[in-house]
């Protein structure tokens, strides 16, 4: 028991909705680090990741994680110019937004 002299203590707001398993699965994937990027910056970052990754076949998905979805608008054409020969998945940091 802690005497607070008439004052009150309320519990803090704690986010119990986390994706710990998904976070560990993403460690070896191309990550954009939740940075607020525009389309040109996303394209450059994805191309740098592709260049640094082992070559994949035409059927291998290339996955990019930790994309900050705030204000980011991309079309299918935008994605196709980033990686025209392979399927591409960009996943938002909220784990509820994806571009494919």
Summed up:
The chain has 100 residues and is of the alpha/beta class.
Could you name the key traits of this structure?
100 residues; alpha/beta
Could you tell me how far the N terminus lies from the C terminus, measured between alpha carbons in angstroms? Answer: 55 Å
Mean pLDDT score, rounded? 89
Strand content: 15-25%
Taking the sheet with the most strands, its summary is: 4 strands, mixed
Q: How much helix is in the residues?
A: 25-40%
Count of beta strands? 4
Figure out the total of helices.
3
Q: Order of strands across the biggest sheet?
A: 1-2-3-4
Find the structural class using helix and strand composition: alpha/beta
Characterize the structure shown:
The protein has 100 residues and is an alpha/beta fold. The chain has 3 helices and 4 strands. It has helices at 20-25, 39-52, 76-82; strands at residues 30-31, 62-67, 88-92, 98-99. Strands 1-2-3-4 form a 4-stranded mixed beta sheet, covered by helices on one side. Helix 2 (39-52) packs parallel to helix 3. The longest helix is centred in the middle third of the chain and has 14 residues, at 39-52. The protein is elongated, with a radius of gyration of 19 Å. It starts with 19 loop residues before the first helix and ends with a strand. The mean pLDDT is 89.
């Amino acid at each position: 028991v802690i005497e607070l002299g008439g004052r009150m203590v309320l519990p803090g707001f704690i986010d119990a909705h986390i994706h710990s398993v998904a976070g560990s699965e993403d460690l070896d994937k191309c990550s954009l680090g939740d940075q607020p990027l525009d389309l040109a910056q996303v394209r450059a970052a994805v191309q740098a990741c592709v260049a640094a990754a082992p070559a994949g076949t035409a059927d291998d998905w290339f996955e990019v994680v930790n994309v900050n979805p705030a204000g980011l608008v991309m079309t299918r054409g935008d994605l196709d110019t980033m990686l025209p020969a392979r399927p591409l998945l960009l996943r938002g940091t909220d784990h509820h937004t994806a571009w494919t």
